[in-house]
């Protein structure tokens, strides 16, 4: 009888140990998918719209000086600085219509080592 209990206990231990890696792998995989989704949602990118206020318009140099919020994907805190406009972002007429004090939203990428405005729009009402 004692030998039966010992054999049964050994069998339970072996079966439990064999099942654990499968469970751990399934759980780990599920956790990875959830982590990846959360990471993707929280990852800052050049697709983020950055709130800003126009401080200076330099039409000749195709630059806007902006007081902007954090540019997380470039690890840049909010500050006031000039930005180049990428070709085609705004026409000459649109650029001349932009005035100091205008509230805008921009998308910025690093181009040739310089932060560059690649998209620009008027700020939304909530900004």
Describe this structure in words.
- This protein has two helices and five strands.
- The chain is of the alpha+beta class and 127 residues long.
- The protein folds into two domains: 43 residues; 73 residues, Copper binding periplasmic protein CusF (OB fold (Dihydrolipoamide Acetyltransferase, E2P), Beta Barrel), CATH 2.40.50.320.
- A hairpin with a 2-residue loop joins strand 4 and strand 5.
- About 28% of the residues have low confidence.
- The chain is 37% helix and 31% strand.
Which structural class is indicated by helix and strand composition? alpha+beta
- Tell me the CATH superfamily of the largest domain: Copper binding periplasmic protein CusF
Strand content: 25-35%
Query: End-to-end span in angstroms?
Result: 78 Å
Average the pLDDT over all residues and give the rounded result: 77
What is the overall shape?
globular
Unreliably modeled segments: 7-42
Task: Provide keyphrases for this structure.
127 residues; globular; 37% helix; 5-stranded mixed barrel; 2 domains; alpha+beta; OB fold (Dihydrolipoamide Acetyltransferase, E2P); 5 strands
């Amino acid at each position: 009888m004692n030998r039966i209990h010992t054999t049964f206990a050994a069998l339970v231990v072996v079966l439990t140990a064999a099942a654990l890696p499968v469970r751990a792998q399934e759980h780990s995989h599920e956790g990875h998918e959830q982590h990846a989704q959360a990471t993707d949602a929280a990852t800052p990118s050049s697709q983020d719209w950055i709130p800003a206020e126009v401080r200076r318009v330099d039409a000749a140099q195709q630059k806007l000086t902006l007081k902007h919020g954090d540019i997380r994907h470039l690890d840049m805190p909010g500050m006031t600085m000039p930005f180049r406009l990428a070709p085609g972002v705004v026409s000459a007429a649109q650029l001349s219509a932009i005035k100091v004090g205008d509230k805008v939203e921009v998308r910025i990428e690093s181009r040739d080592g310089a932060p560059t405005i690649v998209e620009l729009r008027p700020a939304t009402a909530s900004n």
